[in-house]
Amino acid sequence: MNELKATLRDLEQRYLLFKQQQFTFVAALDHTRENAHDKTKPVSTLSQVQNYLDHYCNNSTDKRILIMFLDLCKDLSDFCSQLEDINPKACSPDDRLEKCKLLLSCNNDMSHIRAKYPHDEVNHLSCDESKHHYGAVISILPVALDLLREGIGVIESAQYEAARNNRYAQCNKKEEPPEKRCSSIQTVPIQRDDCENKYMQWKASNKLKSKPLKSKCPWVPPGKTNGL
Asked: Which PANTHER family does the UniProt entry name for this protein (predicted)?
C-alpha cells in the first residue's frame, strides 16, 4: 500500500506541473481546433484531443503540452487498473475506481464533468464560452485524482478491517471452550493400597500419641523413703 501511495503522489506532482501550464494547454486546443475547423464543438472526449495532436498540431509547444496531458490521463488509467487488481471485488457500477476508469476511457463523453470546489481550474478560464468548450477537458484530471484518492482510502479501510477480523478469529481459535478444557485434564488414578498404607500409618501415629504416660513417684529428699 505504501508503494501505491507513493505512485499516487508522483501522479499528483505531475498534475500540479501540468496545472501551472493550463493556459498553454487551452491555447494548444484553440490552435488545433481552428486547424481542424472544429471551433463550434466543445472538447468532450480524449480521443478528440488525440486526433488534434495526430493531425492538426503544427508547433512543438502545442505538441508538448498535449502529449503531457494525454500521457498523464493514460498513467492515471493504468494506475486505476492496478488498484482494481488489488481489490477486484470493489469493481461495481457505483465504485470509485470503476467511475475513474470510465472517465478516463478514450471515447467517454466527459462534457458534463466539472471540477468543483476546492478545485479552481474552471474558474481560471477566461469567459463562459471558454468554460463551455474546455470546462470538461480541464476538469477530468482533478476529478480522476479525487476518485483515486477515495478508492485507495476504501481499499485501505477494507484491508484493515480484514486484518482485524483475522486477528479476532485467531484469538478465538486459541481459546478452548470450557468443556474442552475440562475433558483435556488427565485424572491420575488413586491406588487403593497406597491409601490403606497411609491410613494405617496415621492410625499408628495417633495411638502412640494417646498412650498414657507412666506416673512418676514424687520427689523424696535424700535419706528418706516413701511412706516413712
From this structure: SPERM ACROSOME-ASSOCIATED PROTEIN 9 (PTHR32455)
